[in-house]
Amino acid sequence: MNKLQGGLPYVAMLLVLFASSAVNAAVPGEDLTQSTIGYASLVIFGIAYCLVMGEEYLQLRKSKPVLLAAGLIWLMIGYVYQQQGNIEVAQAALEHNLLEYAELLLFLLVAMTYISAMEERRLFDALQAWMVSKGFNFRSLFWLTGILSFIISPIADNLTTALLMCAVVMKVGGSNLRFINIACVNIVIAANAGGAFSPFGDITTLMVWQAGLVTFTQFLDLFIPSLVNYLVPALIMSFFVPRTRPNTTNEHVELKRGARRIVCLFILTIATAVGFHAWVHFPPVMGMMMGLAYLQFFGFFLRKTLPSSLEKKKAVAIANNDEAALKRIGSVVPFDVFKRVSHAEWDTLLFFYGVVMCVGGLSLLGYLGVVSDIMYTQWNPVWANIMVGILSAIVDNIPVMFAVLTMQPELSLGNWLLVTLTAGVGGSLLSIGSAAGVALMGAAHGKYTFFGHLKWAPVIALGYVASIVCHLLLNHHLF
């Protein structure tokens, strides 16, 4: 610790030197892509992402390197813009990125809280027991969770759906790490593919819809290409999933009080989020936060009515001479919403902060603008949109799509749908390429990993290419 503290002043001095050299190399309004600060920021971001990808072997939580990288990048940016007397520009950019993250954070926090509440009410235990009682083997479970992910994600968004299905896989898979990994890969692909043909399935589709470039019904033209994107890798991967049954025993799971009503409240929360956007054109996060109030009031109701509920159950248990029921009644713990909030995957939420701020800094330096300009002025738009999907897997689809929308290139409807498709499903190529993949690395920590996903990348890439070809063939009249 002392060595670290002793080295911090030298690190700060180096950063100031980097920034100082950039001050003379740029004037206000000019990009810093060719400056020392620009190169230093790229190196810092690259090192941070290498540490993220090595999380499985380094045992270093993925949020730590990107949080540090974000701080270092913005420290250099702040110094340069202050020396130029143009600090207001950097402050505005910083506040814009913080606002984007705040919306993402609150949205995810509510979704994770609901999922934690459902788990505490034993809904996933009941779903596991149902699957076991039906005699599903691992291959059937592989298809069941994948298909449900594809169906639910257009409504509940790909991230929430992936977390929900991952919880089921973790319950059923038990100690079978191989099944959990391949099932999580399948869920990420299915959730991203399902979210690509709905404005509410992914943040990128929402951005395109809000920009007025594609109407609600026109997104449905992406349904078959999205389905192909899921089915091609799923068919191949299914041959590597055994037909053996989970090592679990049949059991009856009694749902805790209010479990089904929490599911209904979650559906109402999603509807509220959709309503806020559709009717008053506010960010969906407003509806999600209102939905958190639904859960809080319901938690208050459960606590207040708990004594009378326990008395009724106790009377029934005594009448039936059910000792097991009496023991369960004695172990009942009142429902606490804030305890559910504390169970959110904070490493994942902080990782998102680091990524958003790092990429926001690189965007202010001019790198995203340069890349977008090259792609849409020197390349064919189709190839440029295909590359957007690949970039989405490496960096993140939100800032890449934001850069494309900022440029507003002259594209046909077919090409706008293509970039929507590639940005949505391209993130499936790597586990860090989408919110669903990043969240599952946290939810299934040590069981679903970057390298566990990477070994299936060629198969996923085959589905990526097939979905693009399908779109070009089916929707050629839109180009």
From TrEMBL:
It is found in: Membrane. GO terms for biological process: sodium ion transport. InterPro entries: Cit_transptr-like_dom (IPR004680), NhaD-like (IPR045016). It is a multi-pass membrane protein. It comes from the Bacteria. The keyword Transmembrane helix applies. Residues 62-424 form the Citrate transporter-like domain. The chain crosses the membrane at residues 35-53, 65-81, 101-117, 138-156, 162-180, 187-210, 222-241, 262-279, 285-302, 349-370, 382-405, 417-444, 456-474. GO terms for molecular function: antiporter activity. Residues 1-25 form the signal peptide. Its main location: membrane. GO terms for cellular component: membrane. Coiled coil: none annotated. Keywords: Antiport, Ion transport, Membrane, Signal, Sodium, Sodium transport, Transmembrane, Transmembrane helix, Transport. Pfam families: CitMHS. Belongs to the NhaD Na(+)/H(+) (TC 2.A.62) antiporter family. NCBIfam families: NhaD_1. This is Sodium:proton antiporter. The lineage of its organism: Bacteria, Pseudomonadati, Pseudomonadota, Gammaproteobacteria, Vibrionales.
